[in-house]
Every structure is written in structure tokens, then in C-alpha cells.
Amino acid sequence: MILRLFHVVDVPINFKHIVHAHSHIALLGWIYTALTTLIYYAYFRGNPISKGYRKLFWFTQFTLIGMLISFPITGYALFSILFSTLFLFASYWFFWFVNKHISTDQKSSNSFKLGKAGLWFMVISSLGPWALGIIMNTLGGASIWYRISIYFYLHFQYNGWFIVAIFGIFFYILEQHNIEVSKRLFNKFYWLLLASIIFTFSLSVLWTKPHTAFYTLGTLGASLQLIAFWNFIKMLKPINLGSFFSKQILSLLKLSGFLFIIKMVLQFIASFQIIADDIATNLDFVIGYLHWTFLGVVSIPLLVFLQYFKFIRLSKITISLYLVGFFLTETLIFYKGYIQWGKENLSENFDLFLAIASFFLLISIVLIFWIQLKTKLLKTVKSPKTS
């Protein structure tokens, strides 16, 4: 909200510093924390290892709070880099924790295969931040390798770690209801999905106008991901999801699936050189695509799963406000990209409209917090001894 207000009113803070805080906390504070919480709850909540996990959890939160405070004040500097580095070690700690404590029976499950693959992509993505330090000290921030390292990190975060882990949580819910899926279809879905993630990284470097082979790999990766999702849909056809998902949850899962299809179609279109050269250099198209993924494809199922496992409560008002804010901001961002692509004049009130649209997202999140606080206060009043 602060970032959007920069272009509407005078905000006496550094814009770039807030951008760094926004990107780090959105990905690591929100998505990483939500995913790791769901993974721990799914596989380890009944195990006597909560003390070790509690230390890991609070150490991770310490690094996140450090980034939340240091980035707005200093940007990329000593303390923000220190907390970012400590977070990487915390993520490696979580990777080790999961692989050490997972039971033999769970190792062979479809859900954990996806969860483990997602965690591997998380580890692989961290090569990007490690490379940044080397590049800054040798080639400098103006080097194309600097941006490639950032895109490498982002790609294997949102296409790899986030999306694959979300599929893993979904399959975990199916397993909890003793639902078996076709082994053949699952294996096709699993390997096609992983291959598509590797190949579609080439889409992240098309702005450098590389060799034609990179465009071909991008098209191949985007095609494989569409085929993988088609196999996923075929697996779900015989399953009555409405028997254990509420209407609201099922509707939101279908919506996130639709958003994922749009994302994959955009990937496919952007892999062709005649289009890629225009899209890859249009910052608003890139930002719109990333927000479509983070706020739609990833955040909506995360909210759904957190409600399903009773971590949060989503009312019709909160989810409606969230969706209004999401679709309005996306429409405006892509509209700006289209206007700039066509070299037309942007409306004078565009920044104000974008700030107002973003306000819907803010209100939705505040209401979710309020519902949680209200529920907790009511429980405390009803059972003071357990408070």
C-alpha cells in the first residue's frame, strides 16, 4: 500500500528500500512461513519433536523481523544482508529437519514426493542470492548476470518450491481421506511438472535476447507444464471433492486452478520470440505476471489450506474483498503495460486508482486478523483457565 501511495502523495522514505522489504517479506514472511507451517502440521504434528521445531520457527521469525526492520531503513546493507543470509541457513535447517524426521511410510507417499521436490527447488533457488554477492564484487550490479541471478531465485521459488509444495499439500488432503489416484497418471504429472520447471527457467533470460535454443526450451517447458496439469485434472475426475471440501473451499480451489491455467498460457505465449522480445522488456507485464502468480496462483490456495486445517477463518466478506483487490490491481497493472506497449497516454488518475484497488487487499487482510483476534478473545472469555 505504501509503494502504491508513493505516486499519489509525498512519502518521506526511500522507495527502493521499501521495494526490497516488500519483496522479501511477501515471499519469505508470508508464503514461506505458511508453506512450512502446513508441511510441519501435515507430517510432524503428532511427533515428539515440537521443541526442536519451535526453535527453528522462532529463529526464522527473528531473521524475517530483522529484514522487515533493516530493509526499509538501509536497503541492501550490512544488517539486511546479514538477516537475509541467516534466513537462508534457517531454510536449510528446515530442509534438514523434514528429511531427518519424516517417517518411512510417509516418504513413499505422493504428497511427500511433491513436498520433497518443492524443498529441493527451494535449496536450488538459494544459489541465486549466493551468486549475487560474487557478481557484485566482480562484475558489478549493472551486469546482466546480476538480474539473471535474481530471476533464477524467483523462478525456482514460485514455479518450483511454492507451486510444487502446494500440490503436495493438496495430495496430502486426498491421502487423509484414503483417496488413491492412478499411479500412472501421477507419475506422468510428477515428472512432467518437474521437467517443465527446469525448462521454463529459460523464459527468465529471454530479455537478454539469447540464442534461439532458449526460446525453444521455453516453449517446450511451457507445453510440458500444460500437459502435466492436464494429467492432474484427469486424476481428479473420478474424485468427489465436494465430499470433504466445503463449497467455498472448492470454489476457491477451482479459481486457483483457473488462474494457474492462465499463468501457463501466458508462459506459452511469452516463449515465442516475436512476442517475448516485447513482453520481457515491459516491466509492468513482468510485475503483473509475478503478482498474478504470488497473489492468485499461490496465495489463494494457501489461504484455503490454512482455513481447511483451521489455522484461520475466511468469511465471505474477507475473501470477496481480497478477490476484488486482486483482480482490480491485476487489471490496472496489465492495462498500464498494454498502454506503454502501444505507446499511448496513461490516465492521469491511474496511480490513484491503483492505490484504491490495493486498499481492498489491505482491508481484507486486516479483517482476517480481526476475525482471528475476535475468535481468540471469545475462547479466552469462555475458558479462562486454558488461556
Care to count the β-strands? 0
Report how far apart the termini are: 35 Å
Helix content: over 70%
How much strand content do the residues show? under 5%
- Indicate the radius of gyration in whole angstroms: 21 Å
- The number of helical elements comes to 15
The 3D shape can be described as: globular
Segments where pLDDT lies below 50 for 5+ residues? none
Helix-strand topology string:
HHHHHHHHHHHHHHH
Please summarize the sheet with the most strands.
Answer: none
Query: Roughly what is the average pLDDT, rounded to an integer?
Result: 92
Give me the secondary-structure category. mainly alpha
The assembly state of the depicted protein chains is single chain
Give a quick set of tags describing it:
single chain, 387 residues, mainly alpha, 15 helices, globular
